[in-house]
Request: fold
Amino acid sequence: MHSDSTSTFYDENAEAYASRARSLPKQQLDAFLARLAPGAAILELGCGGGQDSAYMLSQGFDVTPTDGSPELARQAEMLIGRPVRVMLFQQLDAENAYGGVWAHASLLHVPRSELADVFARIHNALRTDGILHASFKAGEAEGHDGFGRYYNYPSADWLSALLSAGGWRNIAIEESEGTGYDGKPKRWLIVSAQR
Reply:
């Protein structure tokens, strides 16, 4: 996570954020899991309340949930019944360890200047042919929302160029309409890429 205001938001609102009414991104989860071997090791970056990890575990996958907020990690642990590692994306140092990385609505908090490094860390953490799923709120310039949370707000072209430069293959970016925690309409970029 980026600024103190982003971290503060998640720590101070962890219970409300984790227990909010949220539709599981089931279509995206199922498409991601379908590309992995049964029982594959998955790293979830920014697990929030733990709902996505709980679903992937229920499907028989070996999931390692992480979050940058100690308070959110505690909320997720209560839901999924296993430890959640408190870790910032910039601390990821695994090598060749995972078949997939699930980063749904989490990497959008990484400062633009640090995103190439974080993508490189994810690339290293994946096994050959491993799959990355990530989603971002679309935009043209970084900024903050009404809660003070930092967002990198990339365009599809900007993201695609960054991933290509980082050696990713089979990059696909879909756009969809949706909302965020604030309930305001947002254009989302759904990214899939392969090591």
The helical segments are 4-12, 14-18, 26-34, 51-58, 70-80, 112-125, 156-165. The first strand starts at residue 41 and ends at 45. The longest helix spans residues 112-125.
